[in-house]
Design goal:
24% of the residues lie in helices and 34% in strands. By secondary structure, the chain is an alpha+beta fold. The chain folds into 2 domains: 72 residues, 2-Layer Sandwich (Alpha-Beta Plaits), CATH 3.30.70.260; 57 residues, Alpha-Beta Plaits (2-Layer Sandwich), CATH 3.30.70.20.
C-alpha cells in the first residue's frame, strides 16, 4: 500500500527523528516529496509512505501520540481521452511507467493502477489532457 501524507510539526516537536522511527520501527519505505523545516517554528513534511497497511496505521498512530498532526492527501491523476492527442510528452516524464506508448499503434496508454499521482505529466501535457484530482 502506498499513501501520501502531510505531517505538521509544532515548535516543540519539529526536531524529532520521525522519519527514522517510521523506517526502523514500522519497516516503512519513505519518500520525502516536500519539506519545510524551520527552527522553532511550525514546519511540515509531505511524505509518500509505502508498506503494509497495519504497519502504516501503527506508524501514523505513533506520530499522533508525538503530537504530530497527520493529514492524508488522497489524490489521483486521470486522463481526458477526448483531449489526448497521444503526443507522448507525458511518457518521457512518468517516473513509474503509468503512461507508456503501445507499439506498433504508437498510442499513449495510461495505467492508473501504476500511477503514484506525482503530477509531473500534468505540467508537460500540451493539450492539458492530464488532471490531478484531490
Amino acid at each position: 500500500m502506498k499513501r501520501i501524507y502531510v505531517l505538521h510539526f509544532t515548535q516543540s516537536n519539529y526536531d524529532k527523528p520521525i522519519v527514522y522511527q517510521l523506517i526502523k520501527n514500522y519497516d516503512l519505505i519513505i519518500n520525502i516529496l516536500r519539506a519545510v523545516i524551520l527552527p522553532r517554528q511550525e514546519s511540515y513534511l509531505v511524505l509518500e509512505i509505502e508498506g503494509e497497511e497495519d504497519l502504516i496505521n501503527k506508524g501514523l498512530d505513533c506520530l499522533r501520540e508525538s503530537q504530530v498532526a497527520v493529514e492524508s492527501i488522497r489524490k489521483s491523476v486521470k486522463r481526458n481521452e477526448e483531449i489526448c492527442t497521444s503526443c507522448g510528452a507525458c511518457t518521457a516524464i512518468c517516473p513509474v511507467g503509468a503512461l507508456y506508448i503501445e507499439r506498433p499503434s504508437m498510442k499513449v496508454l495510461f495505467a492508473p493502477e501504476k500511477c503514484s499521482a506525482c503530477g509531473l505529466c500534468v505540467n508537460v501535457c500540451p493539450p492539458r489532457a492530464m488532471e490531478v484530482n484531490f
